[in-house]
Amino acid sequence: MRFMMMVKGDPPPGAMPSEEILAAMAKYNEELMKAGVLLDLSGLKPSSEGARVRISKGKRTVIDGPFAESKELLAGYWIIDVKSKEEAIEWAKRVPFVPGEFGDEGDIEIRPFFELDEFGEGPAVERHRELGEELAKRKA
User: How far apart are CA 91 and CA 35, in angstroms?
Assistant: First the structure.
Protein backbone atom coordinates (compact mmCIF):
# COMPACT_ATOMS: atom_id res chain seq x y z
CA MET A 1 0.00 0.00 0.00
CA ARG A 2 1.28 3.42 -0.89
CA PHE A 3 0.87 6.27 1.56
CA MET A 4 1.79 9.93 1.55
CA MET A 5 3.07 11.26 4.85
CA MET A 6 2.68 15.04 4.86
CA VAL A 7 4.41 17.42 7.25
CA LYS A 8 2.14 20.35 8.04
CA GLY A 9 3.47 23.88 8.46
CA ASP A 10 4.74 26.95 6.70
CA PRO A 11 8.22 28.20 7.56
CA PRO A 12 8.73 31.97 7.66
CA PRO A 13 10.02 33.51 4.41
CA GLY A 14 13.78 33.10 4.17
CA ALA A 15 13.96 30.66 7.09
CA MET A 16 16.08 27.59 6.49
CA PRO A 17 16.14 24.39 8.56
CA SER A 18 18.99 24.09 11.07
CA GLU A 19 21.88 21.68 10.64
CA GLU A 20 20.38 19.70 13.54
CA ILE A 21 17.05 19.05 11.82
CA LEU A 22 18.69 18.49 8.41
CA ALA A 23 20.94 15.81 9.96
CA ALA A 24 18.01 14.18 11.76
CA MET A 25 15.95 14.15 8.55
CA ALA A 26 18.86 12.68 6.56
CA LYS A 27 19.17 9.87 9.12
CA TYR A 28 15.41 9.22 9.03
CA ASN A 29 15.38 9.23 5.21
CA GLU A 30 18.26 6.73 5.20
CA GLU A 31 16.23 4.46 7.50
CA LEU A 32 13.28 4.62 5.10
CA MET A 33 15.59 3.77 2.19
CA LYS A 34 17.28 0.88 4.02
CA ALA A 35 13.86 -0.53 4.90
CA GLY A 36 12.98 -0.42 1.20
CA VAL A 37 9.78 1.60 1.74
CA LEU A 38 10.76 5.05 0.42
CA LEU A 39 9.43 5.96 -3.05
CA ASP A 40 9.80 9.76 -3.05
CA LEU A 41 10.24 12.75 -0.74
CA SER A 42 10.68 16.50 -0.80
CA GLY A 43 10.41 19.64 1.25
CA LEU A 44 8.48 22.67 0.07
CA LYS A 45 9.38 26.34 0.17
CA PRO A 46 7.19 28.73 2.21
CA SER A 47 3.70 29.57 0.94
CA SER A 48 4.93 33.16 0.48
CA GLU A 49 6.65 31.85 -2.66
CA GLY A 50 3.56 30.02 -3.90
CA ALA A 51 0.13 30.69 -5.32
CA ARG A 52 -3.28 29.06 -5.40
CA VAL A 53 -5.69 28.84 -8.29
CA ARG A 54 -9.22 28.97 -6.90
CA ILE A 55 -12.02 27.59 -9.08
CA SER A 56 -15.48 28.88 -8.27
CA LYS A 57 -18.51 28.71 -10.55
CA GLY A 58 -16.26 28.05 -13.54
CA LYS A 59 -14.05 31.08 -12.88
CA ARG A 60 -10.36 30.71 -12.03
CA THR A 61 -8.72 33.22 -9.70
CA VAL A 62 -5.03 33.33 -8.79
CA ILE A 63 -4.20 34.04 -5.15
CA ASP A 64 -0.58 34.76 -4.28
CA GLY A 65 0.88 33.49 -0.99
CA PRO A 66 1.50 33.65 1.86
CA PHE A 67 -1.57 31.86 3.18
CA ALA A 68 -2.99 32.44 6.64
CA GLU A 69 -3.49 29.03 8.28
CA SER A 70 -0.06 27.35 8.43
CA LYS A 71 -1.41 24.21 10.16
CA GLU A 72 -3.33 23.45 6.98
CA LEU A 73 -0.36 23.95 4.65
CA LEU A 74 2.04 21.31 3.40
CA ALA A 75 5.73 21.80 4.27
CA GLY A 76 7.04 18.51 2.90
CA TYR A 77 6.16 14.91 2.17
CA TRP A 78 7.30 11.31 1.85
CA ILE A 79 5.70 8.67 -0.34
CA ILE A 80 6.16 5.23 1.17
CA ASP A 81 5.11 1.72 0.17
CA VAL A 82 4.26 -0.35 3.25
CA LYS A 83 2.07 -3.31 4.17
CA SER A 84 -0.57 -1.43 6.17
CA LYS A 85 -1.84 1.85 7.58
CA GLU A 86 -0.46 0.76 10.95
CA GLU A 87 3.04 0.46 9.47
CA ALA A 88 2.69 3.91 7.90
CA ILE A 89 1.69 5.30 11.31
CA GLU A 90 4.76 3.72 12.90
CA TRP A 91 7.00 5.42 10.33
CA ALA A 92 5.20 8.75 10.87
CA LYS A 93 5.79 8.50 14.63
CA ARG A 94 9.53 8.42 13.90
CA VAL A 95 9.67 11.64 11.84
CA PRO A 96 12.25 13.94 13.50
CA PHE A 97 10.91 17.06 15.17
CA VAL A 98 12.89 19.79 16.89
CA PRO A 99 10.65 21.98 19.10
CA GLY A 100 11.22 25.64 18.37
CA GLU A 101 12.59 24.99 14.86
CA PHE A 102 9.44 26.36 13.19
CA GLY A 103 7.07 26.15 16.14
CA ASP A 104 6.49 23.90 19.12
CA GLU A 105 3.93 21.58 17.54
CA GLY A 106 3.80 19.55 14.37
CA ASP A 107 1.40 17.33 12.47
CA ILE A 108 2.16 14.48 10.12
CA GLU A 109 -0.89 13.56 8.04
CA ILE A 110 -1.02 10.08 6.52
CA ARG A 111 -3.18 9.38 3.48
CA PRO A 112 -3.37 6.26 1.30
CA PHE A 113 -3.19 6.52 -2.45
CA PHE A 114 -5.92 5.21 -4.69
CA GLU A 115 -4.69 2.26 -6.74
CA LEU A 116 -6.05 1.90 -10.29
CA ASP A 117 -7.33 -1.61 -9.52
CA GLU A 118 -9.83 -0.06 -7.10
CA PHE A 119 -11.67 1.60 -10.01
CA GLY A 120 -12.51 -1.52 -12.00
CA GLU A 121 -12.05 -1.67 -15.75
CA GLY A 122 -12.85 0.89 -18.42
CA PRO A 123 -11.28 3.07 -21.10
CA ALA A 124 -10.46 5.92 -18.69
CA VAL A 125 -8.74 3.56 -16.21
CA GLU A 126 -6.80 1.96 -19.06
CA ARG A 127 -5.65 5.42 -20.23
CA HIS A 128 -4.43 6.15 -16.70
CA ARG A 129 -2.44 2.89 -16.76
CA GLU A 130 -0.86 3.92 -20.09
CA LEU A 131 0.04 7.35 -18.71
CA GLY A 132 1.60 5.70 -15.64
CA GLU A 133 3.73 3.47 -17.88
CA GLU A 134 4.82 6.48 -19.98
CA LEU A 135 5.77 8.37 -16.82
CA ALA A 136 7.78 5.41 -15.52
CA LYS A 137 9.70 5.26 -18.83
CA ARG A 138 10.55 8.97 -18.58
CA LYS A 139 11.91 8.52 -15.05
CA ALA A 140 14.12 5.60 -16.11
Answer: 11
Chain segment 45-59, per-residue pLDDT in tens: 999 999 999 999 999
What is the distance between the alpha carbons of residues 5 and 92, in angstroms, rounded to a whole number? 7
Q: Which fold has domain 2-115?
A: Alpha-Beta Plaits (3.30.70)
| Per-residue exposure over 55-90, b if at least 16 CB sit within 10 Å of its own CB, e if not | eeeeeeeeeebebeebeebbbbbbbbebeeeebbee
Contact 75, 7 (CB under 8 A): yes
> Domain residues of the chain, as ranges?
2-115
**DSSP, residue by residue, 37-88:** -EEEEEE---GGG-EEEEEETTEEEEEESP-S-GGGSEEEEEEEE-S-HHHH
pLDDT tens digit sequence for 40-99: 999 999 999 999 999 999 999 999 999 887 678 898 999 999 999 999 999 999 999 877
Spatial distance between the Cα atoms of 123 and 75, rounded to a whole number of angstroms: 36
Q: What's the pTM value of the predicted model, to 2 decimals?
A: 0.88
